[in-house]
Amino acid sequence: MKFKDLFLIPNLITISRLLITIYIFTSTSADEFINTNLVLLIALIGISDSVDGIVARKLNQVSKLGIILDPITDRIVFVLLVLWLTSFFEPIFLIMLIIRELLVSLGGLYVLKAEKTVKVTNNGKLGTTLIFISICLGVLNNDINTVFIDFFMYISLIFYYFVALEYLYNLNKK
């Protein structure tokens, strides 16, 4: 890892995403937002999760620092988001999300220590997208309150766990 990699555009995007998220979540309450604005903020956070990787590949600026920094930032931002939104969800949904993130973080540490690589799959991207959609729907659920939204959220959560198990299986297969 090189210090100059810190200043590559994708790594600056990652660091900015982390710092902006920490600032927003520590200086405001989710309840201060109109639900539609909150959904836009959540969607922006979800989309920004992909931007750094896309930029890194487009500009050919994939770095060892970015490979480590991005997933760590993703986990931190996601857990902060979930904790920030506690008033919108049932505790069991939030607890299951946080447990999954902690398990994925432990898996990430193993990958780093074992110097292995895990390729992001389409299922992984889909799982993350479904969870972000679920979180947005959960925020709107306070306005709409439908059984479909609850069903969608829990099916997405189950798929999110399936993806984590799939990564674990592929990691052990290597």
Polypeptide structure, described:
- By secondary structure, this protein is mainly alpha-helical.
- The chain has a single domain (3-173), classed as Up-down Bundle (Four Helix Bundle (Hemerythrin (Met), subunit A)).
- Helices cover 79% and strands 0% of the residues.
- The chain has helices at 9-27, 35-58, 64-84, 91-114, 122-144, 147-173.
- The chain is globular, with a radius of gyration of 17 Å.
- The mean pLDDT is 87.
In short:
The protein is mainly α and 174 residues long. Helix content is 79%, strand content 0%. It has one domain (3-173): Four Helix Bundle (Hemerythrin (Met), subunit A) (Up-down Bundle).
The fraction of residues in strands falls at under 5%
- CATH C-level class is Mainly Alpha
CATH level-3 fold name: Four Helix Bundle (Hemerythrin (Met), subunit A)
- Helix run count: 6
Class from secondary-structure proportions:
mainly alpha
**Using only CA atoms, what is the Rg?**
17 Å
CATH superfamily, by name, is CDP-alcohol phosphotransferase transmembrane (TM) domain
- Number of DSSP-assigned strands: 0
Query: How does the overall form come out from the CA principal axes?
Result: globular
What summary fits the major beta sheet? none
C-alpha end-to-end distance: 24 Å
Topology diagram in text:
Blueprint: H1 9-27, H2 35-58, H3 64-84, H4 91-114, H5 122-144, H6 147-173
Helix pairs in contact: 1-2, 1-3, 2-3, 2-5, 3-4, 4-6, 5-6
Keywords:
174 residues, mainly alpha, Four Helix Bundle (Hemerythrin (Met), subunit A), 6 helices, 0% strand
